[in-house]
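Our preliminary data section would be incomplete without showing what the modeling component actually yields. Below, a chain of 190 amino acids is followed by its predicted structure, encoded as tokens that our downstream tools consume directly.
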Amino acid sequence: MTSTTHSTTRRFPHRTRALWAVLVAAALVVAGVGLTARATDGTSAAWTNDVHTTTDVTLGTWVDGFGTCVVRNVADDAIVPGVPCKITDIKEQNVWGFPGGMTLQGHAYFEAPGIAYGHYIAFDFTIPPPSDSRWSWANASVVSANNTAAIYSGCDELPRVVGRLAPNIGAVPEVFLVLHDTRVEDALCQ
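Predicted structure:
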């Protein structure tokens, strides 16, 4: 009688191959991590100079790309110290009609954190060019403004608009303006 001896590698050859595959994969992962670490080791930015910048802010007025605004006291029109104001955006809503009968509508948005009862926002901004290139400022006028806005600038100064909002309307108010490309008798600008 012959006796037969079996080794585990002969009885389970698929386990040996699987073990080798796992060991090779692990070695590749370790090698990849090592190469990545070495490749990024010692990397630094080409520019490391410190940058310092300053700006001037006076009496709560914020000058930006849209214009200026300031928070004032209703009782004496004095600037309220320590209460900033910013024009956050000016957007066209609509423009329509034909030259000599065109209408332009738009919004100016403000931000005045810390504004309180008895304060209002005074503003001075320039309306960006309308999307319709046929619009002309030559004879334009402001015909309507919401939030009881008062317009102090003259019609001849358009597209610049100087005025104020009503008091006590919150820290993020807006003014909605309606303009015509012709002068009207009851224009808000004079």
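Residues 67-180 form one domain. The chain has a mean pLDDT of 79. Preliminary results of this kind motivate Aim 1 of the renewal.
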